[in-house]
């Protein structure tokens, strides 16, 4: 009797060999604030943990009690009950209303694009090598706040462009 799952009938597959890692970054007009590694599948609990990692950096930079406008898209981890509760417990964060399907409006997307342009392909063989490379490029942003400032400072123009096109495409 022949079985399709018998060893002689199964062809092993190979993984792509690519090493991956996820990161979450926090920026402001003053520059890069914090970078945190994310799990492969982020959920609301992981996101709230990252917010806790970010909090001391924010407080050190701005002091406690200042109102800070915070941008995030409408991903389910950003709008979950637990995440909303986290922000309710931290009223210094004023969440900006964010239109759906508009990642081009968020300055962090320009940061990730910058990092991709600066990428020096080294064929990282391990996750640790990849993480170190990401942190190296983030370090450039930490040392050059003018780069981040250029992404954040034109927010008003980008928002106005979206308004002018009734939510359509913009040059940004």
Overview of the structural elements:
The structure is a single chain. The chain is of the alpha+beta class. The chain has one domain: 2-Layer Sandwich (Nucleotidyltransferase, domain 5). Helix content is 47%, strand content 12%. The protein contains 7 helices and 4 strands. The chain has helices at 44-62, 76-79, 81-89, 107-118, 127-143, 145-153, 155-164, and strands at 22-28, 31-38, 68-70, 93-95. It has a two-stranded antiparallel ribbon with strand order 1-2.
Descriptive key words:
single chain; 172 residues; alpha+beta; Nucleotidyltransferase, domain 5; two-stranded antiparallel sheet; two-stranded parallel ribbon; 7 helices; globular
How many strand segments?
4
How many H/I helices? 7
Helices and strands, in order, run as EEHEHHEHHHH
The total number of structural domains is: 1
Shape: globular
Nearest-angstrom radius of gyration? 20 Å
- Termini distance? 63 Å
Structural class: alpha+beta
Topology:
Blueprint: E1 22-28, E2 31-38, H1 44-62, E3 68-70, H2 76-79, H3 81-89, E4 93-95, H4 107-118, H5 127-143, H6 145-153, H7 155-164
Parallel strand pairs: 3-4
Antiparallel strand pairs: 1-2
TL;DR?
This protein has 172 residues and is of the alpha+beta class. 47% of the residues lie in helices and 12% in strands. The longest helix has 19 residues, at 44-62.
